[in-house]
Amino acid sequence: MTPTAGSYRRRRFVERVMFTLAGIATASSIGILIFLLGYIAVHGVTALSLDFFTNLPAPVGEPGGGMANAIVGSAKILLVAALVGIPVGFVGGIYLAEYGRSGLAFWVRYAADVLNGVPSIVIGITVYALIVRPFGHFSTLAGGFALGLMMIPVALRSTEEFLRLVPSSLREASLALGAPTWVTIMRVVVPAGIRGIVTGLLLALARVAGETAPLLFTALNNRFWSPGWRAPTASLPVMIFTYAIAPYDDWHRQAWAGGLVLLTLVLGANILARLLMHGGRARGGA
Amino acid sequence: MVAGIDIALPRPSTAPGAQTTPPVKIMVRDLTVRYGEIVALDAVSMDIPSHRVTALIGPSGCGKSSFLRCLNRMNDHLPGARVLGQVMIDNDPLYHPSVDPVALRRRVGMVFQKSNPFPKSIFDNVAFGPRVHGVRDAVQLRGIVERTLRQAALWDEVADRLDRSALDLSGGQQQRLCIARALAVDPEILLMDEPASALDPIATAKIEELIHELKSAYTIVIVTHNMQQAARVSDLTAYFYLGRLIEFGPTERLFTNPTRQETEDYITGRFG
Fold first, then answer.
1. What is the phi-psi region of residue B244: left when phi exceeds 0, alpha when psi lies from -120 to 50, beta otherwise?
2. Chain B residues lying within 8 Å of A189, measured CB to CB
3. Are residues B77 and A172, on separate chains, in Cβ contact within 8 Å?
4. Whole-complex ipTM
5. Are A80 and A145 in contact (CB under 8 A)?
6. C-beta atoms of A192 and B103 within 8 A
7. pLDDT at B232
């Protein structure tokens, strides 16, 4: 069937329209990101100073002060979250990818997807009931546990996905050499996919780093240093929330600065993840 | 486990005047493989002699690869595969509940159609098997690596870059590396599943030369789509069609004077 001149023109027209629409969609999604980054940078950078990173929040009503305790608090919470979320997600992902043919695996996958969809505030309430109430106080541990729970489904599924990308010919090669299944997994399959797995875990951690709702009921907040692991602690997201709704201009500026710091950390984790993956491809691994 | 073990084994002929027949290494009786409803292999019986190259030929889907994968129980890993019948290696039954397929695979090495080196260094690829089986001594490992790379005719090309990634090697080198890796666990049998089908003619010639040299030390079973290759490298040839073993005999006889019409049709290129 040879197209007539008319139908050819019409096709050209449709092609242009679709191309333009796709272009607009792409530009706006990137545009929103750039706008967001720029807006936060412009507002946040004015309050950024060495004090911001080294000082405790100033007493209410006094200008100045910083968020040092919130930065350290966030780091501690994320450490606990990583200790909860990474082992469960990693080992569970191995199970799903390497042994997951049974009916049980279907339910694990399904449960992970449902858990992923559970609103973060609900996770917060649950951890409040499970840990905060029985122990009688808000704590870093409770906050980290809540974020760890949120990490599990993401870590689990990303580990599974990256293990599935490892060609089965490598598993066969190892098995044919007389290696048992678990040796094959630990010495061949996991090393072959490790860059992707680490990337996925890093992104899962970055994703929960900005969560606020689960921390409101678990880590609460603290205007001072939080000793150890069992006391309420400040964290960047909750600090931003508190400062942003407060009636002081100085606090608003600090909230922007906190947002900038948090965004930079998350962005940094994403870029690091990218580099890891890219390095993997260049070497032919992962 | 239906096939009787009591079927008389064709032992090395002791009859005077008979040509010396090598001992049977792998004895297969009524081997049947089903994938769900599909019968991939239908009651195949054959005796594969020691220290010979046995080629399995036949059109795609004829069951030759399924047959090969029964010999080291790689089919165990395919969901839904059922294996019936008897396979014996040196009179040890292969499909017996007491047999550990993991231990078995040390005795039966395998080289795959597409070279599949691990994303590790050349050295670590070859040393993988020995390490898994408990060799820790660095000197010993180095000895194994050098010996098997020499056996695989790869040593001269890689001796100065053993720590480089195996993935930097060419396709033909990768396949020889995989052969070295298989040899490193000191198997008795080497299964090769179309080992040269993805290689250019020069690399193919090297692999074929290698097969020729290895047969003095190993029993080799090779699946090939290339009939000229079967004719070049093998001592015996088995022709499979639709899951059945149609004809099995000395390569020269099978190619010049096949007894079955189906075999003749296939090797003369009338189909397949």
1. beta
2. none
3. yes
4. 0.86
5. yes
6. no
7. 94
